[in-house]
Amino acid sequence: MGVKYISASLEVSRGAVLKPEKVKEMIDCLAKMGYNTLMLYAEDLYEMPEYPMFGYMRGKYSKETLKELVAYAKGRGVMMMPCIEVLAHLEHIFRWKEFAPVRDMTNILLVDEPKTYELIDNMIKTMREIFDTDLLLLGCDEAAMLGKGNFLKRFGYEDQKSIFRRHMKKCVEICHKYGFTPQLYHDMFFSMATGADCYTDNPDVITPEITALMPENAQICYWDYFASANRAEKMMEGCLKFGCPISFWTSICSWTGAIPHNQHAFHTHKRAIPVCVKMGAETIHASSWGDDGAECSLFACLPAFFSAAKYAQGVEDLNDVKDEFEELFGISLDDMVKLDLPGDFFGTANTFYSEKPFVFNDPFVGIYDDLVPEDREAFRSNMLSHVNELAPLCGHEKYGYLFRSASAMCEMIAAKFDLGVKTRLAYKESKEAVKAVLPAYTEAYNKISAYFEAFREVWNTENKSNGFEVQAIRYGGLKERLLDCRRRLEDYADGRISVIEELEEEIKVIHTDEDYKENKYGKIATINTLTHYGFGSY
C-alpha cells in the first residue's frame, strides 16, 4: 500500500525552543523534501490557562501561535499533529507544588488519581482547540518505575501491566471523547513482554496477554534509532501482532550535544526504513531529540531529514538524489554534512560521538582523561584539519553561522581535550613544567570563549532565549573553573601551596570507546553532585 505519512518531529522541550518563524522555515524545508506531517515534541511547552505553571518560564507556545503554525503548515500541504506526554517525561511540571498530587515518582504521573485525569483531559482538550487533525501522539514511554512511588504507598503493589492497561484505557477514552485516534509508543509494551529490553529478535514474546494491553482504536509507534535490518524486521513482526496501523520512528541523531550526526543517520535510515516500508509501516517518522540541553541546531540536521524522506519514498541510494538536495537548499549535501566534522575524532565519518567528554572534563579531576587518545598530536592535527575544511563554508550566505560554530568547536576541542593529561604530566615532572603548561589554560579559555560566542549566534538565530541560561551556566562555569585551576597551578609553582590534592590521585582506566558518546553534562563535569533536586539532567 505504501507509506501514507512521511512525518517529522521537532524537539522543543529540553532547552531550545524554536522561534515560531523558524518553525515556519522548517515547515518549508520539510515540505520541499516530501514531508506531509509534523509534530512539535512539547512536553509542557503549550499554553493551558487552567494550569498557569505548566511550562512556566520555559518558552511555551501560546494557543494562538500554535494555531497560526497549524494554518501555515496546512497551506504548504503539511498536517501538524499534536504530541503530548500522559505518563512520563513530565519532570518539569513537578517542580511546582500544584502538580504534587499527580506525581507517582521521578517524572511519572500518578495513575488512578482523579486529578491526573483532569490534567490529561485538559491537555487533550487543548490539543482539540488547536489542531484540526484526528491523529494524536499519546506519549506513554520510558516509565520503568511506574507504580513504584506514591502509587505504591497509596494503593499498594500492583503488577505494572494492569496499571499500564488501566491508565492507557482511560487516556484513550479521553482521546476518543475529543475525536482523536491516538498513537502509542511501543517500548512499554515490549519491555513488559521481555521483562527488560524494549527490543527483541523474538516476535513471539508479543503474546495475547501483551496485545491485550493495547486499547481499542489506537495505533503503535515503533521507535528505534539504531536498528539493523534484521532487528527492524523482527520488531515489525511483533508490532503487526497488535493488529493496528504502525508508525516507524527513526531519528536524525541530534541528541549527543551540539554536533549533528547526519552520516550516522544515513546508515540507520538505509538499513531500517526500507524494511519497515516493505512490512507495512503506514508512517515513517524522523524524530529529533535534544537530550541534556538541546544544543544541536535542527537546521544542521537537514541532510538527515532529507535522508529519511528519500528512503521513505523508495530511494535505494542517497547518492542518487544528492543533486536534489542542492537544488532545494542552495548548498551541496556533501558540504552540509561537513557540519558533522567536530564529531569525527579519528578520521572515521560514521560516528556518534559527543563533544562533551572532551569539553567539560575537569582538568584536575579528569575522570574522562582515560579517553584521551595516546597520540594526542595526531588527534589535535585531525581536529585542526577540520577547521581548514570548514573554512570555505563559514561565509555561506544562508548557513555560514552553522559552519562558524562547527569550526570554533573543532578549535575548542583541539585546545581543551588533553588539558588534564598535560597538567598531570607536568605536575609529576617539576614546578618548571607546571609553569610551562599555564599558557595552555589561556589558550583553552580563549577557544572556549570564541566557541561560546559562535554557539550563541546559532542559538539566537534559531531559538527563543529561554533555555540558554543552561548553556551560559555550563560554559561560564567551565571558564571560571579553568581560571581557578590556573591560579592553583601558579600557587603551586610559586610555592604558596605544597600540593594539589586532585593531581595526587592516579586516573583510573574505566571508560571504553562507547563513552565517547556520553552526553550528560552532570556526569562529565564533576565526580560530585551538581543538584539533589531531580527535575532532569540539566
Major sheet size, sense and barrel closure:
9 strands, parallel
Beta-strand proportion = 5-15%
- Tally of contiguous helical segments: 20
**Average pLDDT:** 96
Helix content: 40-55%
Low-confidence stretches: none
Structure summary, number of beta strands: 11
Q: What spatial form do the alpha-carbon principal axes imply?
A: globular
Class from secondary-structure proportions: alpha/beta
- The strands making up the biggest β-sheet line up spatially as 3-2-1-11-10-9-8-7-4
Give the N-to-C terminal Cα separation: 44 Å
Q: Whole-number radius of gyration?
A: 24 Å
What is the topological layout?
Blueprint: E1 5-11, H1 20-33, E2 37-41, H2 63-74, E3 79-80, E4 83-85, E5 103-105, E6 108-109, H3 114-130, E7 135-139, H4 150-155, H5 160-177, E8 181-185, H6 187-194, H7 208-211, E9 219-223, H8 229-240, E10 246-251, H9 262-278, E11 283-287, H10 302-312, H11 322-329, H12 333-336, H13 356-359, H14 376-390, H15 400-416, H16 419-429, H17 431-462, H18 468-493, H19 501-504, H20 521-525
Parallel strand pairs: 1-2, 1-11, 2-3, 4-7, 7-8, 8-9, 9-10, 10-11
Antiparallel strand pairs: 5-6
Helix pairs in contact: 1-2, 3-5, 8-9, 9-10, 14-15, 15-17, 16-17, 17-18
